[in-house]
């Protein structure tokens, strides 16, 4: 399942969301490509997507979750890649 949090994270003059999969990175990459997110937006275990792509992510089927729940689901799926390991 593809999961997204609200665009609340400020960076580079924009607000950003996190886009993850609780199934596989392959699922995530395919979804991100359909969304039009460039591969360079992939950061270890998630895509950073700008606020202008948020509604499109929901329209394509991403499930909106609070950030903490999104991170919890990512860890439970064994797909979390903490910064300190990379």
From TrEMBL:
It holds the Pfam family DUF4031. Residues 2-76 form the DUF4031 domain. This is DUF4031 domain-containing protein.
């Amino acid at each position: 399942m593809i999961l997204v949090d609200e665009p609340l994270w400020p960076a580079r003059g924009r607000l950003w969301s996190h886009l993850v999969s609780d199934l596989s990175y392959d699922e995530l990459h395919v979804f991100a490509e359909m969304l039009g997110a460039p591969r360079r937006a992939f950061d270890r275990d998630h895509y950073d997507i700008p606020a202008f792509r948020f509604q499109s992510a929901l329209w394509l089927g991403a499930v909106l979750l609070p950030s903490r729940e999104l991170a919890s689901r990512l860890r439970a799926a064994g797909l979390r890649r903490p910064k300190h390991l990379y």
